[in-house]
Amino acid sequence: MHRLKAPLALVALLTLAAARALAADDVAAPTIRVPIGDADLDFEEEGGLDEKMGGAFRIGVRSGANQCYVEALARNAGEMGEIAFVVKPPPGEGKLLVDLEAKAAIGPELTACVRKVFGAFHHYRHADEEPFDAIHGTLRFAPEWITAPALPTAAAARAVVERSYAEDGVVRVVDLRETWTSQWGDSSEVLRSYRYEVELEFTTDGYEADCQHNGPYKVFSRRPFDWSRWAGHTCESRRHQRGDRAQDDAAVLYRLSIYPAVATSWELRSQPGVMRGTTVR
Predict the structure, then answer these.
(1) Which of 71, 58, 36, 62 is nearest to 142 (CA)?
(2) Is residue 86 one of the residues assigned to a domain?
């Protein structure tokens, strides 16, 4: 009985290949650190607070301040500390009067952002209502980060925009420029938005509709488009020939679920055709 023996060089080569395959399986996917806050809110006078300020005040201040802090951590990972505040009613109706005092390593940009959060609240006074006393409180900021999968690449986001406009065969993207990137979230998710100025070319004769409904939006279609019959929508259509150029604003939104566990990838949540650049046949 004869046994077949593989050459030692071949055995070594196969062993090396197997080891490399195992090592490749063990290589972790690229990750990034994502700031998620954390801002805590305390009031010195809790009694009757919701009756004085409304139920949305407490939630709005805390969530708004946390969003400010997320943006601050993206600029400076070491920013932390407190902002003491005093809120007073205006002489009549109007924006609340707010004094802020930043403590520890709190920068001026975070303080200015928190001031805008308070400025979003409007005080309405009834004729028989006594003005409330000053409300004292503190926002405490401590950095919290998560390890998350790498963000979609710029090329991937660009491909989403190009594919969205091209789907209906009316226009195509000839150029786009990123104008804004923002990121926000809460205890369950992180959202990241990319905004673009887009230059388009008509690939067929068609129409460009400038519409309004809680803000401007455009529609590119083969036939005149008008949603004015729907409450709150107004549209004006212009005819185009093949080869004509047009401009639009586009947004791409990604979501990362972080509760109960951090997801393995970012999910595409919206794109042109949902938020901007909607096309119809």
Answers:
(1) 36
(2) yes
